[in-house]
């Protein structure tokens, strides 16, 4: 099965060399498998990129939805955890890559349908959490608030220097928004 490869070494290899310059040999070495094994399982570098992208999206969404579903935490903490899992946890890899601009440009130009679908699911889960746990004034605008928080988190990833600052700023913004 294609899914038996760990994502971290694949993502790290593409981040280190860039999408265009990474060879199947580079990825094979990072995984400790032969190049032929990669081709047999994925067929091409583009197919491998698609598989890894989908795996990263699925893992991020699962972690983000788990962040929303923490009834013992405050709404602000749950939303912050969800957004951190969705985008914040990728900051270190993105900021460490000399090819972060290439990766971001590719996703902005033609975001995979999987990203749009996953983010819609996250926004819906966040909106539901806001409707059920937020202040009364937030109920009618829960969907808009959730979408705005996703956009804000994506922007913060590029605006702040490190993950600690990302989380601090995100918590401040989320807290201010859901406190009203």
Description of the molecule:
The chain is an all-alpha fold and 180 residues long. It has one domain (53-178). It has helices spanning 7-17, 24-31, 35-42, 45-68, 75-86, 91-96, 100-109, 113-133, 142-159, 163-178. Helix 4 (45-68) runs antiparallel to helix 5 and helix 9 packs antiparallel against helix 10 (163-178). The model has no long low-confidence stretch (mean pLDDT 86).
Short description:
The chain is an all-alpha fold. It has 10 helices and no strands.
Layout of strands and helices, then pairs:
Layout: H1 7-17, H2 24-31, H3 35-42, H4 45-68, H5 75-86, H6 91-96, H7 100-109, H8 113-133, H9 142-159, H10 163-178
Give the distance, in angstroms, between the N- and C-terminal Cα atoms.
Answer: 49 Å
SSE pattern: HHHHHHHHHH
Please give the radius of gyration in angstroms: 18 Å
Poorly predicted parts: none
Silhouette: elongated
> Biggest β-sheet: count, sense, barrel?
none
Helix content: over 70%
Structural domain tally? 1
Properties at a glance:
single chain, 180 residues, mainly alpha, 10 helices
């Amino acid at each position: 099965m294609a899914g038996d490869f760990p994502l971290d070494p694949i993502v790290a290899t593409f981040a280190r060399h860039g999408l265009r310059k990474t060879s199947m040999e580079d990825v094979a070495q990072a995984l400790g498998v032969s190049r032929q094994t990669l081709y047999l399982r994925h067929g091409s570098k583009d197919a491998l990129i698609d598989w890894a992208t989908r795996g990263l999206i699925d893992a991020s969404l699962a972690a983000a939805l788990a962040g929303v579903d923490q009834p013992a935490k405050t709404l602000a903490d749950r939303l912050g955890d969800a957004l951190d899992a969705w985008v914040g946890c990728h900051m270190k890899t993105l900021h460490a890559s000399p090819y972060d601009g290439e990766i971001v440009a590719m996703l902005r130009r033609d975001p995979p349908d999987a990203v749009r679908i996953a983010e819609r699911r996250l926004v819906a889960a966040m909106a539901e959490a806001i409707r059920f746990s937020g202040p009364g004034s937030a109920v009618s605008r829960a969907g808009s608030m959730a979408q705005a928080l996703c956009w804000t988190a994506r922007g913060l990833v590029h605006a702040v220097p490190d993950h600690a600052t990302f989380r601090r700023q995100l918590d401040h913004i989320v807290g201010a928004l859901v406190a009203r």
